[in-house]
């Protein structure tokens, strides 16, 4: 009989939903990438290499992987959904490169706003996308299960080092594993949550 739970503050990952980048990226052009919420044309080979390395790191921790799940009623595909005893992590990948910082504007006399700046560009679409994906996951798992949106950006720049904007953690691939393994234990029914997600978010 399998015993579910955690004996320390670091919860073991149980189930992850993954989508390996494929020919959908090859269909992107300079004319359609904006309407499809891409800030540039991704390098397919590199995206697949980073995906495979991430997936192998999870397998090394005895995590089961489910690939290519579609958000109902949309054309959006979830990149990664990680279910741990500490909650659900919705991870969106981005090919953005450069230094990361958050610019805060406004305050007492005008509304406060935040902008994620990568290199010299202000980036909003990837953040908006992962927030929408996290909302879709939250609708399935319910308000009692913590859902954490994460934006994972390209790996060549310096560490994100705790960058957060609008509730979205921004990390490099090398930092992602550490973030997930520090997720703690919120008493989540991991197999039950995994089953609910697998039923709603179908294979593409």
Task: Explain what this protein looks like in three dimensions.
- The protein has 204 residues and is of the alpha+beta class.
- It has one domain (15-203).
- Helices cover 28% and strands 26% of the residues.
- It is built from 5 helices and 13 strands.
- Strands 2-1-5-6-10-12-11 form a 7-stranded mixed β-sheet, sandwiched between helices.
- The protein is globular, with a radius of gyration of 17 Å.
- It starts with 14 loop residues before the first strand and ends with a strand.
- The mean pLDDT is 77.
Question: How are the SSEs placed, and which strands pair?
Answer:
Elements: E1 15-18, H1 23-26, H2 44-59, E2 64-67, E3 69-70, E4 77-78, E5 80-84, E6 87-93, E7 100-105, E8 113-118, E9 121-123, H3 125-141, E10 147-152, E11 163-165, E12 168-171, H4 173-181, H5 190-200, E13 202-203
Parallel strand pairs: 1-2, 6-10, 10-12
Antiparallel strand pairs: 1-5, 3-4, 3-13, 5-6, 7-8, 8-9, 11-12
Summarize the structure.
The protein is an alpha+beta fold and 204 residues long. The chain has 5 helices and 13 strands.
Structural key phrases:
alpha+beta, 3-stranded antiparallel sheet, 204 residues
How many helices? The count is 5
Percentage beta strand: 25-35%
Total E-strand runs: 13
How do the helices and strands follow one another from N- to C-terminus? EHHEEEEEEEEHEEEHHE
Gap between N and C termini: 32 Å
* Helicity level: 25-40%
Q: Which strand order do you get reading across the main beta sheet?
A: 2-1-5-6-10-12-11
Gyration radius, rounded? 17 Å
Given as residue ranges, the uncertain stretches (5+ residues, pLDDT < 50) are: none
Query: Structural class of the helix and strand makeup?
Result: alpha+beta
Number of spatially distinct domains:
1
Largest sheet: 7 strands, mixed
Average the pLDDT over all residues and give the rounded result.
77
Shape: globular
